[in-house]
Structure formats: structure tokens, C-alpha cells
Amino acid sequence: MAYVVTDACIKCKYTDCVDVCPVDCFHEGPNFLAIDPEECIDCTLCVAECPVNAIYAEDDVPPGQEGFVALNAELSKLWPTITEKKDPLPDHEDWAAVEGKLQHLER
Ligand code: SF4
Ligand code: SF4
């Protein structure tokens, strides 16, 4: 099993999660982070850090967001590792409560 970043992260990218990950398995895209399922050790530390509750265990991903499991696996291979927190995206407050943002995901 691994942990998975889901829809809520898109266009927010707060990055609070990356500081606590002991194995540096977060990877950064333009407006989303992805967890490498082959590196994640299921420590759960990142879950409580995310201000928009975007991170779930693979088996607990909310209904309708199952596609994010494969998406994290795919995108984490394409994007560079991020290990230090940075500022969220400038308009993160406008998007934090919006659901169904997959069409806005940039690669
Ligand atoms: S803390 Fe949450 S919103 Fe921020 S980058 Fe991590 S998963 Fe995305
Ligand atoms: S569960 Fe642990 S190892 Fe996996 S992404 Fe979160 S902090 Fe990293």
C-alpha cells in the first residue's frame, strides 16, 4: 500500500507535507504533488500536515477519486523530488474548497 495525493491539492500545492516525509517521496508538478508509491513507507506523517486533507491511504481514497492512485504512480515518475516547503500557489485560497479540479491539473 502507499499514500496518495488527491483532488484537493490541485491548484493549492501548500507543500506542508514534504517537510515531514522521511523518505522524500513527494514529486512536484506545476500545480500538484504526487507520491511515489514505490518509495512511500506508509508512515502516515504527511496526512495530518495537509491543510486541505488531500492525502489518503491507497485503500481509503474517496469515491470518485480512485484514478488518483494511478495518477500518483505515473506523475511521480515524471516530476522531480521536492523536499522543502515553499509558498503555496498565489491563488490557493480561491481553489482550496473547490472540488473536481482534475481538468485543471497541469503536467
Ligand atoms: S500539503 Fe496537501 S495541498 Fe499541500 S502539497 Fe501536500 S498534498 Fe498538496
Ligand atoms: S506516508 Fe510517509 S512515506 Fe508516505 S508520502 Fe506520507 S510522509 Fe512520505
From TrEMBL:
Q: Where is the 4Fe-4S ferredoxin-type domain?
A: 1-30, 31-60
The protein's matches in InterPro entries, at most eight in alphabetical order, are given as: 4Fe4S_Fe-S-bd (IPR017896), 4Fe4S_Fe_S_CS (IPR017900), 7Fe_ferredoxin (IPR000813), Fd_C (IPR022569), FdxA (IPR054829), RnfB_subfamily (IPR050294)
Q: Which cofactor does it need?
A: [4Fe-4S] cluster; [3Fe-4S] cluster
Q: Keywords of this protein's UniProt record, alphabetized?
A: 3Fe-4S, 4Fe-4S, Electron transport, Iron, Iron-sulfur, Metal-binding, Repeat, Transport
Q: Which is one GO molecular function term here?
A: electron transfer activity
Q: Does the keyword Transport apply?
A: yes
Signal sequence residues: none
What function does the entry list?
Ferredoxins are iron-sulfur proteins that transfer electrons in a wide variety of metabolic reactions.
Put simply, this protein is called Ferredoxin
Query: What species is this protein from?
Result: Chromobacterium haemolyticum
